[in-house]
Design a protein that fits this description.
There is one protein chain. The protein has about 60 residues and is mainly alpha-helical. It has two helices and no strands. The chain is flat and about 45 Å long. The N and C termini lie far apart (about 35 Å). The mean pLDDT is about 90.
């Protein structure tokens, strides 16, 4: 696969996902992306992780933020 240029990692940056969230908000009028958003499952998962991280941060988890 390496010989044909297979991309092993295609993860987007935080800024890229944020821009996807901005686009979502323009279409749907909110940022309540469901974790199982069929149109963009990766965005739904990213938003879910952001929410989880924020809640941990609010509770004083030093590993977040």
């Amino acid at each position: 696969l390496n010989n044909i240029g297979f991309e092993w990692s295609i993860s987007l940056s935080w800024d890229d996902r944020y821009e996807e969230l901005v686009s979502y908000a323009k279409v749907f009028g909110d940022t309540c992306v469901p974790s199982t958003f069929n149109d963009n499952p990766a965005l739904g998962l990213w938003v879910s992780r952001q929410r989880t991280g924020y809640h941990k941060f609010q509770k004083g988890d030093a590993s977040c933020g």
